[in-house]
């Protein structure tokens, strides 16, 4: 019937925002009733593929629940609400189509990796069976995939710098969408549903550690507040390049990554705010560097499109044979922060306690696991998947491939020196003292190498190696060059906003 009311289901996944949301924008003009829908997919709470860690840990789950609640509140202010269901999206959508009888379209943003693509395939099958239109969009990156200067995606450069230069010179960022102040209502008879609790999804609410570098809540509201603070209230963005390798506190980096991962903030909105800031305040290497890091995020997403399942394979993008070990005892030392290498242990304890770790820390602990311990890189990638509050499948696996030397890296045998890195970025050991308090009695830079101290110095510091703090599980010969030395230099570029 031509006069029948049209209902559009807007399936939201990693796009939990009302600003610059193409799915909601399209539905507003193409339907009489709009159902913004979020599904708590039970597959997200199973074990990881290789090692069976929980896919979604407590810190990210809490952040997700906060983001879903915030989106519902914002949608209510706009005359709508967020419909929430527990179940597989393809099953939930089928049930809604059957219940309502008026669904004309299902709209969603496309994703890049296999499990998400499988969901999209299932949705297409459901809609085909019921004669319902599918409307999809690409919106997870700063640069739209259709605007890249290399098509098809198989022509994507295998070196980030080549990608960055080509995009910066040959592509434009699309403007953010102008969203309606009021949204179309839900279809009659649709219940909004209850947002599950942590316990409903098999997790306990984590205790907030006072030492955390990320004490923020999830949601679009908090994301926009953080940008306002970091850019306009404090001008911290103007010194981002100098501070981004920090380890302690909230303000050494943007901290946008957790909100970007769930789509609570649009990368294009960040871009527009950077350009506005550069026009009204200052343009420098720091403002550029925020965009540089957003481009890393784009790159890993496009790499996932190019290589598909290979980003998860043991041999990586290069099909490289590496004799990875699967020593669970060594892995336990790494994940629990008990390797006997203080800089590694501090970072791993921070991750376990807070769900967050600095970009500098991530690069170091990944290098340590793959290059010093020689463990299967997927152990680390899946542990990060479990714990990181800002887990993003493409960035996580892309970075781990890079660290393992089987991804996109023109340099062979890239390996971080744990002692040099610790001295460069935590020269006095304050970060280590924060997270490895059993070493607090060791003064200055000596805290990085307690095994190099004599028994008198250890006794004075109240440290007994092998009892109060572990002996190192491994020592690399190149570390000896930096024992009892201070900071030497700063490091290379980062690999995505954290």
From TrEMBL:
Residues 6-142 form the Photolyase/cryptochrome alpha/beta domain. One of its GO terms (biological process) is photoreactive repair. It comes from the Eukaryota. GO terms for molecular function: damaged DNA binding; deoxyribodipyrimidine photo-lyase activity; FAD binding. Pfam families: DNA_photolyase, FAD_binding_7. The record marks 324, 377, 400 as: Electron transfer via tryptophanyl radical. Keywords: Chromophore, FAD, Flavoprotein. Its cofactor is (6R)-5,10-methylene-5,6,7,8-tetrahydrofolate; FAD. FAD binds at residues 240, 390-392. Binds 1 5,10-methenyltetrahydrofolate (MTHF) per subunit. May have a photoreceptor function. Belongs to the DNA photolyase class-1 family. NCBIfam families: crypto_DASH. This is Cryptochrome DASH.
